Amino acid sequence: MSRIRKTLLKNGIKVITEHMPDVESTSVGVWVKNGSRDESPRERGITHFIEHLLFKGTSKRTAQDIASEIESVGGVLNAFTGREYTCFYAKVLNKDVPLAIDLLSDILINSTFDPLEIEKERMVVLQEIKMVDDTPDDLVHDLFASSLWKGHPLGSPVLGSARTVGSFGREDIIAYYRRHYHSKNVVITVAGGIRHGNVVKLIRSMFAGIEERNPSVATTAPVPLKGVKLVRRGLEQIHLCMGVPAFYQAHPERYRLYLLNTILGGGMSSRLFQEIREKRGLAYSVYSYLSLMRDAGSLVVYAGTSREDFKRVTNLVIREMKRMRQGISSEEIRRAKEQLKGGMLLGLETSDSRMMKLARDEIYFGRTVPVKEIVEDIDSVRPRELSETASRILLPGRMTMVAIGRVKKDDLPAALRRKVV
How far apart are CA 136 and CA 299, in angstroms? Predict the structure, then answer.
């Protein structure tokens, strides 16, 4: 019998579990298919704000009660907000799963949104926004998304702005909450030393009070914008992001993209790390990453370097993309495949990582994608296919770039100067 089972409750909640017989812990995740991309311009940051507020007291528990109950069993209770979903999760010993599900259902269904707590937490979130603004190696990623997806909710910071967060009234918060936090928008995933039937019984009982509504209208896909944005700040380094639009999360060629990213900047053996840091010492931090959504995606390079070395670094990034379009050796592809597979398998050894995989598979693929299938699909990518995909994706003419620091237009390579916006 498969260790993974799925049940659709009458109220529309999907419950997916994975039985891990040899672990002492269980991770429970309540995933709401709502993120920052579902916000209107005046609501920017409200999803993240609600994530904070749900821990600030319910009709049954104070904020201190919530913290004390989970910590009294040595467990963890936390949450995070993304662009396309919000996750509330707990990790506990197997015997404490009923408590974890009770706490998660209570904060999701019975939060009171106390006016005093709203004002206190508003100050916390405003400090969080200021912290990111004071951290250029974090801020540059938000600015890059804003430039690439300009005018679309995917380009807005998950935290929102000081102006929008400062404007939310209690009635705005409750209206948004009621519109999105309902049973048909919820997926609950559980992984660990549990039995599916027992978990379903607990969830059916404890989530019986959740509202039932029809899902919200889906948002439109973004259109990528090319160009270079320079943000002048008195910093010791220039922090830059250079990227191109790529495939969406469930694209049939996504494994080619994973391999391209791994080879380009996905680790210490990657081309960018070796060329920019190891061989030339031009940056301490340099890497590439993928940001993939349900209908859009990007491959992005980050580096932090001095103004004197800024042009050399950007030229090296462009050069490595060109080299990848010209061809990638079979040996380099083989190493990248082993790196991808090994990283995935090592990452799936814990109950929390398994719980998260179950949810993301359901949200983006509508099914659990077996690990064996992933391994086979990675192995099936051929050198010719990878070069062909690189030739379509890694083109200078498709590039968007943002740089923060003491940077001027003249510091850019000639090919990028005419793209400054």
Answer: 20
219 located within any domain: no
Whichever domain contains 146, its CATH number is 3.30.830.10
Computed on alpha carbons and rounded to an integer, the radius of gyration of the chain in Å comes to: 23
**Which residues, at least 6 apart from 282, have a Cβ–Cβ distance to it below 8 Å?**
276, 305, 309, 312, 313, 316
Residue 186: CB atoms within 10 Å: 23
Q: Does residue 191 sit in helix, strand or coil?
A: strand
- The catalytically annotated residue of 18, 51, 84, 362 is 51
Same domain? 202 vs 231: no
Domain tally, the chain: 2
Residue tagged 């790196």 (tokens): 339
Number of helices (H), then strands (E), in the chain: 16, 11
In a shared domain, residues 310 and 371: yes
Q: 215 lies in a domain?
A: no
Q: What are phi and psi of 156, to 5 degrees?
A: -90, 145
Q: Name the residue range of residue 62's domain.
A: 4-206
Residue 51 appears among annotated catalytic residues: yes
Do 62 and 130 lie in one domain? The reply is yes
Note whether residue 217 is domain-resident: no
Could you tell me how many residues make up the chain?
421
Final residue in a domain of this structure, among 161, 176, 206: 206
Owner of token pair 């106390």: 114
Q: For residue 403, what are the β-bridge partners?
A: 230, 240
pLDDT in tens, 201-257: 999 999 999 988 877 666 799 999 999 999 999 999 999 999 999 999 999 999 999
183 part of a folded domain? yes
The rounded distance, in Å, linking the Cα atoms of 357 and 371 is: 10
How many angstroms separate the CA atoms of 418 and 421, rounded? 9
Q: How confident is the model at residue 17 (pLDDT cuts 50, 70, 90)?
A: very high
